[in-house]
Every structure is written in structure tokens, then in C-alpha cells.
Amino acid sequence: MNTFAARPSACPGCSAGAPAEARAGQVPPPGARLLLSVPGVHCAGCISTIERDLATMEGVSSARLNLTLKRLSVAAAQGVEAADVIARLDRLGYEAHEMDAGSLSMTATEKQGRDLLMRVGVSGFAMMNVMLLSVAVWAGAEGATRDLLHLISALIAIPTVAFAGQPFFRNAWRALRAGRMDMDGPISIAILLTLFISLYESLLSGKHAYFEAVVMLIFFLLVGRYLDFRARAAARSAAQELAALEVPRALRLVDGREESVAVDDLAVGDVVLVRPGGRVPVDGVVTQGRSEIDRALLTGETLPVAAGPDDVLSAGEVNLTGPLQLRVTAAGKDSSLHRMADLVATAETARMRYTTIAEKAASAYAPTIPVLAFGAFLVWFWLSGGDLRLSMNVAVASLIITCPCALGLAVPAVVTSASGKLFRKGLLIKDGTALERLAEVDTVVFDKTGTLTMGAPVPDNADSLPPEVAPVALALSEASAHPLAVALAKELRGRGIVPAALEAVTEHPGCGVAGLWDGAAVRLGRADWVGATPAAQTASYLSVGAETRALTFTDALRPGAAEVGGLLREQGRTVRLISGDVPGAVGDLAARLGIADWQAGALPQDKAQAIADLHAAGHKVLMVGDGLNDTAALAAAHVSISPASALDAARAASDMVLLGRDLSPVADAVRLSGTAMKRIRENLWQSGIYNAIFVPIALFGFATPLWAAFVMSLSSISVTLNALRLK
């Protein structure tokens, strides 16, 4: 039914080049790749600490931490157990658990999100109640009334701090046990010291207590943590999605009998049966049968290809029309599909090592905060002649004012605001660092089928069929489920054609449909089967008697595809097209879209290699694709986008997903990323100016803890408002 000759399927498992260790010349020794969950990691410092320490562990050749998924992948030699790595991480202050790669799910991530949101709600509710009590104190309550209001505030604040502050306390304690100081360290100290000072003042009938300050501090910090979580939570493992395509069982033929066996139990040389509609479970060579194979997910070919004896098939391809017998050449972990999943996991881990600007700044800034506060305490204790209350108040105020809350909100607030704007335009941002990386992009690489086009063929010249022949073409096309036949039938039906009465209509898998019309043989299908000369583009061929006609097809452009290239070039980006389709179709589309740099017939390894070559040349690449053949390239690109109609694995490997059919939001996202980065830099400058002004005020004793919490909150709110300017 098409012009594509059957050819060996690509080995997608080898398609993205060698794994990172091999490229670096550091091939790990034979052993296992351990997968662990490390729920306590949350910043760039965690990545650096863990990867650096495990690199010195005997028997470990490499360690890669995926911050979004909080997942650690360790390449270890024989004899190194998960328990050894877990013990090592425990000494660093990180809790870890071994994971089963075959049963990964989003349950833990969803539970973490619900937990954070619940703590935000509790702290927000407590903050409002404590603020109401504080208003009465500020209005002039004195004596026993003031003390009672302070004690009621304490009864609300203490359990709130104990419950809502747990995310900060746990991380800070683990870091301190390991001899480190992260961003949660000064936060926890500020919370506990403020609570202690407030209790101390309340029990001594002091005029000032700061319960509202401590609850407000926790609330704003949790809001920032939740915004950051939401920016990351949508990311999913593409390797997991690819693994879901693997067929767990196969029908093995033994002496003519069928037996269902696990794919892992198959050996090279076994013969398996693949029924119509089934997914190919192994890599193998067809020994018997003819059919058509949908390998668009692996090679990007627009249409199914014919398969017969001696043709090579890959795991993950779909058998469409006829039963096939395959001689196994690779199965289970040795199959091309499984090797591709491994490559995607490697590329995905490397991609997720990007960190936000705010995390880098905070990791350098956090250790200095306790030093400043402790220094202020010592100086004021000496200047005041041993006044513990005054010295403690200055230290607590300094801790609160220097708390990196605004710094922590600087990026998530902008990402959340930008995400909302792009979502309304039809683009979902999955990764919190994607906007930062997108702003650095100078080259945009598009796939063709299903990305720039809709993946649905449309007849070009069906109207050229003579009136007496068109009904025959309709009758033949309606007898097949082939995409070209379906498209032709839809076109002819839309023109009011009535199908001719045919006899002995038979579909020949991999070839086409044949029948008799008034005693004459008629056929619709492949050029060689019909006896026609192949055209230079995608076509189906109609034979009526001795006369043959080529019915050509083109794929409809995706809305916005005609404009997106020009918009990107106006922004100074280079646009390229790389596709697995035939040169004629790719070249025609490139000419229509004004794309001068294009490549046809690209297999998965070609796409991934093109991305690698561009990176090696110093370019930052945005990859836009939708198929399984694009997945490794999507994961390896600097930043990636896939349509919602894409394969689940492609969407999972991408940083952003197009929700609608329109492609123009890609250009909007590139433009908005630059604006977002400008807002992020403004927020960071604002946080820096805030510290430069108010930290000296606190250190010189001109700020109470309440005033410090108020100013800190204003700083956080101003950062959020600046981010909202994106809308």
C-alpha cells in the first residue's frame, strides 16, 4: 500500500550513542546499577555532596542523582550492595531506600505534594488566628490580658511549628549530623529561636512575643517549597514509560504447538508467533507470514511498512494485518527497546543535573547566616554587659531578616507565573528549570511526522480519478484499514461517490486489496504489487485492467507550523528539521516552511547524534518531537517539547508538553523564557538589595523579631508580585 520497501528495523537501543560513562572513557566494571530513592534531597548542594562522596566509594564507578525524581542511580561492581550505599548516605545525613525499577510509580511524589499542601493549610490557618490575637495586643492590651493572649497564641503556635515545620527540621538535622549546613539549617534555627524567645517573654510577662512572626515565617517558607514542588512534580521517567511498552509474555512455537512463556525465558533461535494487532515482543527475523508493521514509534516513518520472510523486526513494533513467525535474535534486557530505555534513563539523569540560579545562590549564602547571627549575639552580649534578652532578640531578628525565603521564592514564583501564562496558551511546563534552559537556546530542531504535521495523510489527486473509476477506488479502499486507504475512502465519500459492487474482495497483508469488477481484476496497493512505477512521494496505486494510476498523499500541517519557524528566526534562533521520513516528503515540507537545513531518513541514532554534535559545537538545542524514535534525543537535548498527541514516553522525556494542536506556543515559550529570566534576575537583585539594607539594621539592634518577620514577609510578597507581572 505504500512506496516504502521493507528494510531492517533500526536498533534503537544503540541509537543515542554510548552511555555517558563510555563516552568519557570510563566504562563501569561488570556489576549492577542500583536504584535508590533519596527523599531528603532538595538543592544543588545535595547533588554535589552525594555524587562527590559516592565517587570515592570503593566499587562505585559512577553515581547520578535526579533531583526532580529524588532518585539516585549508582553503577556498582559485583559485591556492592544497596545496603552499603544506603549506609554511606546515612552517614552523609540522607535517608535512602532501595527501589524496584520494575514497579516505579508516582505514589511517593503525590504523597509528598499532599503532605506539603496540608502543612501550608495548617500554618496559614494558624497564622490568621495568631494574627487576630496579636491585633488585640498591638491595640493596647496590658497586664494579665496581654499575658493571656500571648499564652493562647503559644498554644496555637507550638503545635503548628511542631507539625508544619517538620520538612525544615528533618532536612536541617540530617545535614547537621553529616557536618553540613544547608538552607534549612538557618531557617530551623530562626524558627526555634523565635519560638523560644516568645515563650520566654510570655512566661516573664514581657511586652513583646513573636508567635505570629514564627508562624508567618513557616507559612511563607512552605508556600515557596510547595511552588517549587509543583514546578517539578510533573516530571516523569521516560525510561519507565518505555519499559511499559515491553511485552512481558510471548507465544513460543514448539513442534507446531503454541506455549505462553515469559519473554525473559526466550533464547536466541526460538520461534515466536505474533498475531495481528499484537506488539512484537522480541528482536527477530520473520520466518513465515506476511503483514504490515507500524514502526512509526521507532523510526518516524509515516506509514506502515510491509514485512515478510527475512525482514528484521524490533521489539515494540506493532503487527497490523497478518500473523508472523519470528526467529528470536534478542529478547528481554538484550532487546532494542530495553536498551533504548537504558539510554533514555542515562540521558535523563544527565539532563536533570541542571540547577536553578536561586539554588546556586542559596547554597553559597546559607552557611553565612548562622555565623552572622551568632556574631551579633556575642557582640551585643558584650556591649550590653551580659543582657541575654537583648542579645537573643538581636540574634533572632538577624536570623529572620537574613532568612533566604525571598531567595527561595525568586525562581518558583516566576516559573509558576510563567507556567500559568503558557498553560493558557496551550503549553504545560513540567520541569522547574526548563525556562532557564529555554532562555539559553540558540537552535531549535523539529521532527516532522506528528510534530510539524498532524500524522494523517491527505489525498492530493483523488479528484483526478475518472467518474467510472472513482467508485472502484472507493470500494477497494473501504475494504482496508490501512491509513492511506482510510484517507482515500474519506475523501471519496466526502465527494458523494458511491462504491462500486465488487466481487471476491481480498486484502493481501503488506500488499493491498484485490477484487473483481465486472469480471475484470482491480487492485489498490503497493507499486510493485500493482505493477506500477513508484512515485517520488508517498502514494497508493490503483490498477483497473491494464491501466494504473498513482494516488499521492501529503500530511496536513499542524496549525501554527507555517509561522513558528519564522517567529523563531525573528528571535535569532536557528531552525532545523530532522525526520525519519523519505527525502521527497521531508524536502517538500522544508521548502514549504522555509527551513533550509533539513535531514531525511534519520534513524534514532542519527537524531541523537545530531543533538550531540550541536552540543559539542557549543550550541544549546531545543528539541521538538513526538515519537519513540525522538525520545532519546528529547531526553538528551538542552530542553525539549512534545505534543500532547505524542507517545507517553516522548511526553515523559520532555520538559514541556503542547496541550493543543497549535504549534505556535513553542515560539511564545522561547520568547517568554527570556522575559522570565529577566524577572528572575530582578528578584535576585531585589533580594540582594533587601539584604544589603536590612541586615545591617538588624545587626545594629534596630529590629525586633516581629519587625524582622514583617520585613521578610514584605520581601517575599514583593518577589511574588514582580513574578506576577508576567501575566
Written description of the protein model:
- With 727 residues, this protein is an alpha+beta fold.
- The chain folds into four domains: 12-107 and 236-242 and 346-351, Alpha-Beta Plaits; 108-235 and 355-415 and 676-724, no CATH class; 247-334, Distorted Sandwich (Calcium-transporting ATPase, cytoplasmic transduction domain A), CATH 2.70.150; 455-555, Calcium-transporting ATPase, cytoplasmic domain N, CATH 3.40.1110.10.
- A seven-stranded mixed β-sheet has the order 14-26-25-24-15-22-23, sandwiched between helices. It has a six-stranded antiparallel β-sheet with strand order 6-5-7-13-8-11, with no helix packed on it. Strands 16-21-20-19-18-17 form a six-stranded antiparallel β-sheet.
- α7 (184-203) packs antiparallel against α8 (211-233) and α8 (211-233) packs parallel to α27 (705-724).
- The protein is elongated and about 115 Å long.
- The two termini are 50 Å apart.
- The model is unreliable at 1-31, 100-107, 233-239 and 346-353 (pLDDT under 50).
